[in-house]
């Protein structure tokens, strides 16, 4: 992923107001991000733990980055679940390592309360997990795959693209 400026990031959001985008906090390590290892920028708001954000390069119409505001439910799933699988990168985690993120749809559908949800790595570190640069806390949850790293990256990008397309879909049909 090519590095983005703060202005590019704030201007990319498709499912929140300009005021909300202006008030969001960027990642604490914004100046040291490993852009070369990122396929998207994802972070939890350090000042509002129930908010998170994704910025996906070339995902909006015209090839511009698409920023998506996410929400985390106030209550987590029951602790009976031992492990979970991220639906973007397919990394296995302890139950607390995967979180349900919901995103209002872009446009009128989102303003009307229509949302899309997906279970994703709680730290939004999918690109780093796929590349082996970060390990899940539950090491036994990592499944042995015959896919190469490049094939896993392609699969992750496809899964992310499907989620973004769902958020951008105007009517939810």
Task: Name the descriptors.
7 strands, two-stranded antiparallel ribbon, alpha+beta, 3-stranded antiparallel sheet, single chain, 5 helices, 173 residues
Structural summary, described in words:
The chain is α+β, with helices and mostly antiparallel strands and 173 residues long. It has one domain (6-168). 24% of the residues lie in helices and 21% in strands. The chain has helices at residues 6-11, 18-23, 107-111, 126-130, 149-168; strands at 41-44, 51-56, 66-71, 83-85, 92-94, 98-104, 115-121. The strands form three sheets. Strands 1-2-3 form a three-stranded antiparallel sheet. The chain has a two-stranded antiparallel ribbon with strand order 4-5. Strands 6-7 form a two-stranded antiparallel sheet. A hairpin with a 6-residue loop joins β4 and β5. The two termini are 31 Å apart.
Q: Which overall shape is indicated by the principal axes computed on the Cα atoms?
A: globular
Radius of gyration: 16 Å
The string of secondary-structure elements, in order, is: HHEEEEEEHEHH
Secondary-structure content class = alpha+beta
Q: Helix count, per DSSP?
A: 5
> Could you estimate the helical fraction of the residues in percent?
10-25%
Average pLDDT works out at 89
Assembly status: single chain
User: Roughly what fraction of the amino acids lie in strands?
Assistant: 15-25%
The largest sheet, given as strand count, sense and whether it forms a barrel, is: 3 strands, antiparallel
Distance linking N and C termini: 31 Å
- Whole-number tally of structural domains: 1
Please list the strands of the largest sheet in the order they lie side by side: 1-2-3
Count of DSSP E strands? 7
* Model regions low in confidence, pLDDT < 50 over at least 5 residues: none
């Amino acid at each position: 992923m090519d590095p983005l400026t703060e202005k590019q990031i704030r201007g990319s959001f498709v499912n929140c107001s300009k005021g909300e985008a202006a008030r969001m906090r960027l990642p604490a390590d914004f100046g040291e991000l490993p852009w070369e290892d990122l396929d998207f920028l994802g972070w939890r708001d350090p000042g509002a733990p129930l908010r998170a954000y994704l910025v996906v390069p070339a995902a909006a119409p015209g090839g511009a980055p698409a920023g998506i505001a996410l929400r985390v439910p106030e209550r987590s799933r029951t602790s009976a679940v031992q492990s979970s699988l991220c639906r973007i990168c397919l990394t296995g985690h302890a139950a607390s390592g995967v979180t349900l993120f919901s995103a209002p749809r872009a446009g009128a559908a989102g303003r009307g309360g229509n949302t899309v949800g997906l279970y994703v790595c709680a730290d939004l570190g999918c690109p780093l997990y796929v590349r082996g640069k970060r390990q899940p806390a539950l090491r036994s949850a990592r499944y042995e795959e015959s896919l190469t790293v490049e094939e896993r990256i392609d699969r992750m990008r496809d899964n992310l693209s499907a989620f973004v397309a769902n958020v951008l879909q105007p009517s939810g049909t």
